[in-house]
Amino acid sequence: MSTDRLLVHVLRGPAASPAPAARRGPRRPHRVCFPQATDAWMRRASVACSSASDGEAGGMTYKDAGVDIDAGAELVRRIRKMAPGIGGFGGHYIIGDKCYVGGTDGVGTKLKLAFETGVHDTIGIDLVAMCVNDIVTSGARPLFFQDYYATSKLDVDLAEKVIKGIVDGCEQSDCVLLGGETAEMPGFYAEGEYDLSGSAVGVVKVDKLIDGKNIVEGDILIGLPSSGIHSNGFSLVRRVLEKSELSLSDQLPINDGITSSQVLLVKFSWHRLSSMLSRLVLEIISKGGVKGLAHITGGGFTENIPRVFPPGLGAKIITGSWEVPPVFKWLQQVGNIDDAEMWRTFNMGIRMVLVVSREAADRIIEDNHGSNPAYPIGEVIQGKGVCYA
After folding, report:
1. Interstrand relation of 194-205 and 313-317 (parallel, antiparallel or unpaired)
2. DSSP output for 106-132
3. Among 323, 340, 337, 299, which Cα is nearest to 223's?
4. Where is the PurM-like C-terminal domain (predicted)?
5. What are phi and psi of 54, to 5 degrees?
6. Are 70 and 62 in contact (CB under 8 A)?
7. pLDDT > 70: what percent of the chain?
């Protein structure tokens, strides 16, 4: 069954007999249904993921790779005591009837792959996407972007490639590169390496601000697909690649003729879809029914989805209701990574999760198909955190 036909089947269920022409009345809303998981690998993920894997079975974890999600969450809790109101995907600042939304991010250790491969013209697009996709979760239209580029000794040609990627990302995201900072810090970074971060600001009318407060039990989770790993989890990815003993020029066993670097850095780079994501999300929002959005980056499903819920609500994810890119299956197999760790580290093939009313879910799924599909991947439930079925 094609993707389009599957979505319609999931949405509508069995065909009903046509009503007589003379019978008119309010349109009866569809009931969104979810397909059963058909992939054995996905069926194993029917676990609650409120904490990271402890690694007792010998599998790799994000913490073992040097990234402690729990420590990051603890820091956020402490910062909240000093600056109440933080913790969302973007910060809100209201002036009159407008809310300005700001977001700051980087691309993490994915930079290491750029250093090793010499591919520097796409990492800037990833950077813009990480920031812009955060602020659109509030319904904000991106306005401008500012970057920070730091290195021990400035290589003008290399820096130009990086900044060109940032400019491309801004153009694709309908915002402007307003300015930035280039810092030359002798002896601070390894030769040939640099650090990269940025900030984006957008705007939305206060009465259109999306903050998740209206989310209720029974609302539907809609997933917009990713093309692959994007920019989170790369500390663990690099550990798995090291264990596999494959070089960046070797072919991964998941795609004929595709090298590791192309899969991890280029072929599945965020920039392949970033040009349409902010526009697509804002278009969906403009039609109504969207109550909350979660950008799936560091922390995966487990940490990010609950950030948009009011207290007392959680998420039930129906595994197998979308196609998981094969690179994630390869990572889990080679790294012997626990299911819970996979859901807490990677985007698993979903780059953005929309929380919508059931009526809006029908329309969104119908309107988005083909090259930009939208999948019903779960629902809001009573409880806390995320469970997988």
Report:
1. unpaired
2. E-TTHHHHHHHH---SSHHHHHHHHHH
3. 323
4. 217-385
5. -85, -5
6. no
7. 79
Burial 28-66 (b: 16+ CB within 10 A, else e): eebebebbebeeebbeebeebbeebbeeeeebbbbbbbe
Kindly report which listed range (42-51, 153-162, 206-215) carries the lowest average pLDDT score.
Answer: 42-51
With 90 as the cut, is the pLDDT of residue 142 above it?
Answer: yes
Using alpha carbons, list the distances in angstroms from residue 54 to 45, 72, 89: 16, 17, 27
Ramachandran region, residue 383 (left: φ > 0; alpha: ψ -120 to 50; beta: rest): left
Counted residue by residue, the chain has a size of 389
Q: What's the mean pLDDT in 315-324?
A: 93
Residue 99 has pLDDT above 50, yes or no: yes
Residue of higher predicted confidence among 37 and 243: 243
Q: What local confidence, expressed as pLDDT, does residue 372 receive?
A: 80
Grouping H, G, I as helix, E, B as strand and the rest as coil, residue 94 is: strand
Instruction: Quote the CA–CA distance of 177 and 16 in Å, as a whole number.
Output: 53
**Residue in the block written with tokens 């999931």:** 10
Q: Which helix (H) or strand (E) covers residue 144, if one does?
A: strand 141-151
Q: How far is CA 202 from the centre of its chain?
A: 18
Cβ neighbour number for residue 142 with a 10 Å cutoff: 25
